[in-house]
Sequence to fold (146 residues):
Amino acid sequence: MSPRRLALVLALLASTPAVAAAAWDDGPPSLMFTPEQIEAVRAALAGRQGGDGGAVDITAEDGAAEKAPPPPDLHLSSLVYLSPDEWTAWVNGRPVTPGAATQHFLVDRVAPGRVDLILTEPAGKRVRLEPHQTYRRDIGAVVEGR
Fold:
């Protein structure tokens, strides 16, 4: 290799770590998402942090409290079960893990293929969901799909 090419290669190699380090300030780039998608996820997470868990205080213009909207239906879209202490259930599109705080239910028990929930409203009602099932509050029953 000629000295000129060697100098060029060394110069390129010397500049690469600085460029890579500057681009990786917030961690390495994603292999699954575009920079725009990563920014959208970061913006969504920033909006969720520091909130009150989604609780809403609804007050009419005259200052009288209005009735809060009813709790949502609960849809179990997926369940990854490794052990009684290692699992993730996706309820209403959000991951729920052991010890995670939820607003409308408590996780009572998780087993391969099912999740047992205790609802906060109506208080104490027990519901068992399997993946792709929904507890519909309007009819008080579990249905297949959404």
In short: The radius of gyration is 24 Å. Residues 50-58 have pLDDT under 50 and may be disordered.
